Amino acid sequence: MDTKVQHDSAAPMIELRGISKSFGPVQANKNINLKVSKGSIHGIVGENGAGKSTLMSILYGFYKSDSGEIYINGKQINITDSHVAIEAGIGMVHQHFKLVENFTVLENVILGMENSFLINTALNNARVLLSELASTYSLEVDPDALIEDLSVGHQQRVEILKALYRQADILILDEPTGVLTPAEADHLFNILRNLSKEGKTIILITHKLKEIMSVTDTVSVMRRGEMTATLETSKTTPQELAELMVGRSVLLRIEKDATEVGGKSLEVHNLSVMDKRGVTALKNVSFHVRKGEILGIAGVAGNGQTELLEALGGISPATGTMKIDGEEIPLHDKGSDARSRREYGVSHVPEDRQKLGLILDFFAWENIAFGYHHNDEFNKNWLLMDNRKTREIARQEMAKFDIRPPTPNNLVKNFSGGNQQKIVLARELEQNPKVLIVGQPTRGVDIGAIEFIHQKIIELRNKGVAILLVSVELDEIFSLSDRVAVLFDGKIIGERITEETNESELGLLMAGIEDGPEEQPAMESVA
Amino acid sequence: MDYLTIIQILDSMLRLSAPLIFACLAGLFSERSGIFDIGLEGKMLASAFFSAAVAAATGSVWLGLMAGLTASMILAAIHGFASITFQGNQLISGVAINFLASGMTALIGQNWFRLGGRTPSLSGDGRFLPIEFPFAESIGKIPFLGPIYSELLSGHTILVYVALLTVPLTWWLLFKTRFGLRLRAVGENPEAVDTGGVSVSFLRYRAVLICGLLCGLGGAYLATGMAAGFIRDMTAGKGFIALAALIFAKWRPAYALYACLLFGFLEAIAIRYQNITIEGVGTIPVQFMQALPYILTIVILAGLVGKAIPPKAGGEPYVKER
Question: Within 13 Å and on the Cβ side, how many CA atoms surround B38?
């Protein structure tokens, strides 16, 4: 960090003055001021909807700010579109990659920067540059590979290479590690450190405080469209950052007592699923969950998690056996659907709440009854539903789950992500299930709500419910589960007791390396 | 079936394929850029009418061609407005253009010429005449290879040769130039183009206008090259057959040529052999032969030729996400 002091006297590489931006009545950015010095790695943290992405989109020319000024290297620039931003040396690696999947790496790199009518020269230039960059920054990638054949980590490298090919001095990364294994993420951070050593300025947007702590020099916190603080990373703590983000103190890690585990409540044996393209997405998966136990399923997204959840939830057919309290229940054809699963006492919180968990254009009280709407409690008689009573039930559950606003007559699409998730949880948990299957319970949910959702899941476990937790967030797996199984390429590649394992061991398993180093000293995993 | 007959069938195959090649490549440019276009038929029809009408009025086929191209490109621009600027439904816009062209040509044709929707017959400079290659007659006397030159290659109108040349030109444009790279990219992932600092709309407009230009050439050829005047609804589904050929060709220029030649070949057979008698089976009626290209179209569109993956962003208007 010492080497960076010399830059402080010069003009900052990026300076934002009084940036404001509204989308209709919503003010996404309020009078934002920010200075980032050359060659530093600057983190921006904040909850969903805090305005991080909007701010960066303004800097990259995707949106135009309502007011405020942008200075790059001391010079005021009016960034009207992405082209101007690129000219000014700003490169952005988006959360969802902007790559053409059936193009080669080279074609993607030169797209928009071909320099002449014929693309041959540009392709050759890019090939030379790519091999130089590969050796300087350990950004190796096969220039002639098609994007669709590359791993997500390599695709991300292509995005970085694209920016460097455009001679970017400033690199903005939006939630870059969401799709990476821990090892890939570490590699990315090494690349970022190399880049900053070479004088590139990096802005890292993330909600993972651990990443901020490990890689950034300075960090800014955003809350409700405002920049609440800018700190030196070495002089702050995750706890302080979390409080600044939420505006109150939060528990980063849920206290969890040991409980009495009972008999096997959910047993799955040789479960296999073919996906729509006829590819076997899940291969002979076997596991069990005991009463009062949380089994975490870890793994990088796309390794069979979706198929597992849908098979157990009765949404798609599968082969193998599934038992609830010793009773075998059908996995395909007759009797295998979401409604029968619920009748067996299996509640399912789907990973994609907006597609499978809720009907966004319906009221909250209607959504509270969905899936259970045929139960007596929601009906007057064989023909008519009891809407008044359903609304009353919804009101009670919304209060109990601290859903804001607590009005049942509100369309679900008007709730925030965290509150939408709480609606799904309220519905499923209040049915007193024997088994709870829950997928990505806190994806896109802000820190305050994460804490609440985690507490509810733990409460249910303490009541003796068997819980299967599928999550791509290792932190979540560590803070909730008693045992953890790792899903890789449709198979369970390893199983560990949470207390006896650590992130690096699980990380290796997530990357498909079965014989990870045994028995390392347990690393404390803080969010 | 003797050698000369085969050459003659292949000769009419070339003649009949040309409008399909134009329309198919037109569709290729549009769909590669992400704009689905079922209005190829309508654009060809409009061009066929206006080229024949202007050629009949002025006696110049070149002025006719200009008029045809203009008409087709105006319709293409309308499709562009609807699907790019106003982000409307591309299928509906295409259907509208087909109806518009069909109704408009018949109505204006009747109003102008009072021939029941036809234009007067074209002759002399009013239509494209066959181009005889040099020394065709003497080279034609060489056994075997001679007729290929004199009968098959020589003796077509200029637009047939233009059609054949458009195929390698399209390939070159698509795979060797900056425009082609961006065009292919914008049909797959417009966001990649947008974040690369390139205008999605401008790119798509250019693709749509090229589509209009090529449809215009195809339509003008129908009325002033292949036939001698415009007849009501003379495109007879060629725009849709071209779409089927495009899917068959999996959106690649060389395959598009082969697919169009196949359709042209079937048509040539149907014209040449009105009734085919097969031993033990009987006579195949002419109606069946004439229906063959359309049957093949249905087979292709039903996906029986294997998996054809269209450009990923096809049919979706590009809206910048919030």
Answer: 12
What pLDDT, in 10s, does the model give residues A420-441? 999 999 999 998 999 999 999 9
Residue in A60, A62, A112 nearest the CB of B193 = A112
Query: What tokens were used for A147?
Result: 């994007």
User: Tokens 């444009």, residue?
Assistant: B173
- The string of pLDDT tens digits covering residues A126-185 is 999 899 888 888 888 899 999 988 888 889 999 999 999 988 999 999 888 877 777 888
Tens-digit pLDDT profile for residues B102-137 = 999 999 999 999 988 889 998 888 889 888 888 888
Q: How many domains does chain A have?
A: 2
Angle separating helix axes B200-221 and B3-32, nearest 10 degrees: 150
Q: Which residues from chain A sit within 8 angstroms of residue B206, using beta carbons? A: none
In chain B, what residues touch A86 (CB-CB under 8 Å)?
A: 196-197
Cβ distance of B192 and A116 shorter than 8 Å: no
CATH class, B3-304 region: mainly alpha
Please tell me which residue of chain A has the smallest CA distance to B173. Answer: A118
Identify whether residues A453 and A333 lie together within a single domain: yes
Among the residues of A216-255, which ranges form H helices?
A: 238-246
- Cβ distance of B189 and A23 shorter than 8 Å: no
**Interface contact B177-A111, CB threshold 8 A:** no
Three-state DSSP at A477 gives helix
pLDDT of residue A389: 93
Helix, coil or strand: residue A71:
strand
Domain-wise residue ranges, chain B: 3-304
Tell me how far CA of residue B13 lies from CA of B137, B266, B273, B290, B292, in angstroms.
21, 8, 13, 14, 14
**Does residue A3 belong to any structural domain of this protein?**
no
The whole-angstrom separation of Cα A278 and Cα A292 is: 36
Give the chain B residue whose CA is nearest to the CA of A80. Answer: B197
- The verdict on a CB contact (< 8 Å) between B178 and A23 is no
> Which of B177, B196, B322 is nearest residue A111 as measured by Cβ atoms?
B196
Please tell me which residue of chain A has the smallest CA distance to B188: A100
Cβ contacts below 8 Å, chain A against chain B, sum to 69
